[in-house]
Amino acid sequence: LFQEQLQNWIRGNVSACPYSIFIFDEMDKMHPGLIDAIKPFLDYYEHVDRVSYRKAIFIFLSNAGGDLINKAALDFWMSGKQREEMQLKELELMLSVGVFNNKNSGLWHSSLIDRNLIDYFVPFLPLEHKHVKMCVRAEMKARGYTVDEDIVQAVADEMTFFPKEQKIFSDKGCKTVQAKLDIHEDF
Predict the structure, then answer these.
(1) Which Pfam families does this UniProt record tie to the protein (predicted)?
(2) In the chain, N or C: fewer CB atoms in 10 Å?
(3) Which of 111, 184, 130 has the alpha carbon at shortest distance from 154?
(4) Which of 15-29, 102-116, 130-144, 163-177 has the lowest mean pLDDT?
């Protein structure tokens, strides 16, 4: 029933607007197999039911490969390289195989991966201390405050990082920066 509803929803939207964008958030929480319902729209067919899906964009967001990305970033760091030097090609195969074999990915054993229907895997790399500080500065500016480096440092120091010993990467990215900055509002 859900597969049929999903197909009808996509079909209706693309029929009305060929340039539709579909964002599937939290794929890791989606029932395995459900996403395969959209395979006909991504496959190499010119038309499905007399409708072309070539101009539609499908984006799948997932935390399923997060542990793989974090391990790769940490290995990269341990080898003395900067995070910014990582290349997509170094992560893409690892991510597609990892997500395909992860029962909690929403893409587990999905025909979308099996048939190479996903064009790009875009990893969101973990943020380092310097990136968190950039987030704090940006939030201070957005609130109309003058950037105070002591406050920036204090907020960044309140964040949690991993691995525990080295404290390299923020385990929440910048998600809690706003709340942490609220505590320092009296500056």
Answers:
(1) TOR1A_C
(2) N
(3) 184
(4) 102-116
Assign 3-class secondary structure to the chain. Answer: CHHHHHHHHHHHHHHHCCCCEEEECCHHHCCCCHHHHHHHHHCCCCCECCECCCCCEEEECCCCCHHHHHHHHHHHHHCCCCHHHCCHHHHHHHHHHHHHCCCCCCCCCCHHHHCCCCCCCCCCCCCEHHHHHHHHHHHHHHCCCCCCHHHHHHHHHHCCEECCCCCCEECCCCCCHHHHHHHCCCC
Q: How far apart are alpha carbons 19 and 57 in whole angstroms? A: 7
Mean per-residue pLDDT of the chain: 87
More confident residue, 102 or 43: 43
What's the rounded Cα separation, in Å, for the pair 180 and 136?
9
Contact (CB, 8 A) for 61 and 25: yes
Break the chain into its structural domains and give their ranges.
1-60, 127-186
Assess whether the previous peptide bond of 18 is cis (omega < 30° from 0).
no
For 40, the token pair is 């006909």
pTM for the model stands at 0.73
Question: What's the pLDDT score for residue 168?
Answer: 94
The size of the chain, in residues, is 187
Closest CA to 56 of 3, 4, 10: 10
